[in-house]
Amino acid sequence: MRWDRKAENLMRIGVTLRAAAVALAAAIGFALAATGPAGATSELDRYLDLPLVNRDAAAGPGGVHPDLPYDAAQLRELLDRARAQGVAPTRYAALLFQYWLVAATDRAGIDLSSWDPRAGVQANRENLIKSYRYYEDLQLEHRELQWAGMAGQVGADFGGGLLDFELMGTMYSLPGLSESARSVVAAVQQAAGPAAVTMLPRGLAALAEAGSQITPEDIRYIIGMILVMQKNIFSDLMPLHTAYVREGLPAIEEFQRAGLIDASVLTAWRDIASGDHDRIAAGNATLLRREQEWAIGAQWDHVREYKGSVGEAITYVSGAAGSPSVAGVLPPREFRPVQIPFTGTDGRAMILTLPLPGWNWSVLDDRWDYITTELLPKYKDQVANNWPALEAVMRTPYEVQMETHRPLLTIPQLLESAARGLRITPAETEMAVR
Question: Please, what is the end-to-end C-alpha distance for the chain in angstroms?
Fold first, then answer.
C-alpha cells in the first residue's frame, strides 16, 4: 500500500515535469518564431537607428550610410524583417531610404556604391545621362509625374552647361570673361554715368572684377558642388518616385512614418495620385519647391559665397548663359533684365535696359520667381496641350539632348552682344510698355 502510494506520487511528479518541459519548449519556440534566428536578429540590429550621414552627397560617394549594403534583395529582406517584428519605422529609416535609393539607381543603371560627384563631369557623364533619362522615362510612363519630366528637360541644359564649365577649366583661358564683362560696364558708364555702374547686378560687377582671377581649381571645386546638388536631388526625390510607381501611396506613407518626409510632401503625393489636373500640378510644384529649397538651397548659397566675388561671378554668368529646353520659356537673361533708372543730360528720367539678367540664379527667391513664372506654367501647358511634341523631345536619346545645350563657351560673345544691345528709353515710355 505504501509502495503503491509512493509510485503514484512519482508518476504525478513525472507528469508535472513533462508538462513543464513542454510548456517551456513551446515558450521558447514561440519566442524564436517571433524573433527569428538569433543571427538574423543581430544582423538586423546592425542596421537600425543608423544616421543618414551621406544624405547630403557632399559627405562622400555611395549611399546614405557606409554600413548599409547595396544589394536590393538583401535590403528588402532586412526591411521586411523589421516590419514583421514591429520595429518602429523611425528606427529603420536609413534602411528604408537605402532600399528605395538602390531600387532607383538600379532602375536607372547607375552604380550607387561608386557614385562620387567630386570625381568631375567626365567621370559622372554617364550618371548624368542615366539620371535624366530615368526622369523622362517616368514622365512618359506616368503622365502625373510632371516634376520628373520637367527635371529631365532642364537636365539637358544643366548637363551641357557642366560639360562646358569643365572645358573652360581645362582647355581655355578665362581672362576673356573679365574683359567682356568690363566692356559691358564701360558701355553702361558711357551711356548713363558712374552712378549707373553701382546699380549693376553684383554678379556682373564681380565678373568684371574677378573674372581674370578665376582658376581651373575654382572651376573644378564649383563643378563638384553642382554635381553634389545633382546627386542630392536624385537621392531625395527618385526613391519617392520609384516607391510610388511600384507600391503606390502606402510606400510614400511609410517614408512619412519613418520621418524621411514631412506631411506637406505626403500631401503632395496624394495630390499627384488624385487624377485631378490642378491637384497634380500643385503636388508637383511642392516637390519642385522641396528640390530648390530643401535639397539644394544652402549649397547654391555656399557656391555663390565661394571666395567672395569668384562664386558671385560664376553663379551669375551660368544663369546669364542658360538656354532652357522647355518650349516657350524665356532664357534667364530675358527674364527681369537689368534696368537702371537715371537722369539724362536733358534732365529727363530715363531707363537703361541691358539684355542680361538683373538677378542671380543661385538666390532662391530669384530662382523661384523664374521657375513659377516661366518653367512651371509653361511645362504644365505642354503636358496638357502639346503632349505629342513633348513626347517626341523626351524620346530623343539623352546624349543628343544634352549635347545640343552647350551654351557656356559663347559667354564672351554673349557679354559683348549685351554691350552692343544696351537700350536707353524715356522712363514714361518704359512704364507705358509695362
Answer: 120
